[in-house]
Specification:
Elements (H helix, E strand, L loop, with lengths): L3 E3 L8 H9 L7 E3 L1 H7 L8 E4 L3 H7 L6 E6 L4 E6 L2 E7 L1 E4 L10 E4 L3 H6 L8 E4 L5 E3 L3 H7 L1 E2 L5 H7 L2 H13 L2 E2 L1 H9 L9 H12 L12 H12 L15 H5 L5 H13 L4 H9 L8 H18 L4 H8 L3 H11 L1 H16 L13 H7 L8 H13 L7 H13 L4
Parallel strand pairs: 3-6, 11-12
Antiparallel strand pairs: 1-10, 2-3, 2-9, 4-5, 5-6, 7-8, 9-10
Helix pairs in contact: 7-9, 7-10, 13-14, 14-16, 16-17
Length: 426
Amino acid sequence: MCYTTIMNRKIDLPVELVLLGETLLHHAELFVVGGFVRDSLLEKKNTDIDICSKLTPSELFSILKNTQFEVIDKNSKLGCVVVKVGKYAFEHTTFRKEIYFSNGTHLPEAIEFCTDIREDAKRRDFTINAIYYNVLSNEMIDIYSGLGDLKRNVVRTIETPSYVFQHDGLRILRFARIVAQTGFKADFVSFTQAKKMAYRLTDISGKRKFQELQKILELSLNNENKKSNSYLVGLKMLNCFKVWPTFYIPVSHIKFKMTKRVEPSQKLLGFLIDVIDCVNPDCVEYYLKQLLGNKGFMLKEKEIDRLNMLVCGYFDALNKKRNKDYFIKYCEYYPEIAKILKKRSNLLFDKYNFFWEYAIAHKLPLTIKDLKITSLDLKKHFPKIPEKKYQKIMKKLLNQVFEGEIINSQEKLLMEVRDAFNNGDY
């Protein structure tokens, strides 16, 4: 293992970070490491600045007490704190050794703080992410020849690939993302071993795997180098690695048809549609709840419901669901669904959009919120009607107004409820 110090490779840093380095000068040297150094050398933008030193969280708290720097505990057991100053928040990690579980889980079993930068470098993933930049001296410490790999445009693991991927399966996804993000070649040995060890992703939580997948999809939003298809490089690598079963997607290969067609901001929706097309589940809604929920991506309930409505709305349009039933169910989500639908079929888009524009122009009620009465009106005028029946009553009124059977006015709607109540319907 070599230890190379490179001089005069100045990187532009925020003044606040240089001031932090000066404040810590008599206690420790401060370094920037990771993606910020890599991207700065590639002349790419990156606002996420990770810093490190031999100082422990408790030492940082003590040294920076009563200064302009605020230290916030993020995970002090792992040596992670956030140093806030002005508009910046720098994540600081203490130099450390890591001991991993025998499986491929992301978090180490134990850590040991150290003062040797070489020991800290051993725990990192890829050579181009393991270049340390001294905040004050402008020196670069390149222990694993990352600068050489930057020149060769190669993404390579720092140690043997089996060692790197064995201890942290998430690095397999990071490998695909960084190759896609940089536009570099994947080191052949690293690629081959990642493919062999994709099973290690089974040990990673669905939430962490989804975060990496989302980062790959979001590469389409970055047009800095006009590589709008860079996200596809990452997705195709995941196809090669056959990782999808570890995501609760029971296929080895996904055809990214809609993912490629939709706008950059809708790549996740396009991806989910492609998953449904490949898996072909008996019930789209049920499968999506499992995929997006605890068996898969572990998203929050509100986001699961939103994505489910958008994807189901797309497939219901393909199945040519009746206008009235379709818009009463998907009205809130239609503007976003329409963008996807247009990428699939202009005929279907025209069919639904014609009705949508007609409904908007003529102020047709499409949701219960569009009615001129609320559940509070029902409670006030019909106290004997149980509250559990309000939703059913409002849905019936919406249908009647939509069909032109009654006028959407408070007087007419209350009269309709009164007649139904007197007839014993409620």
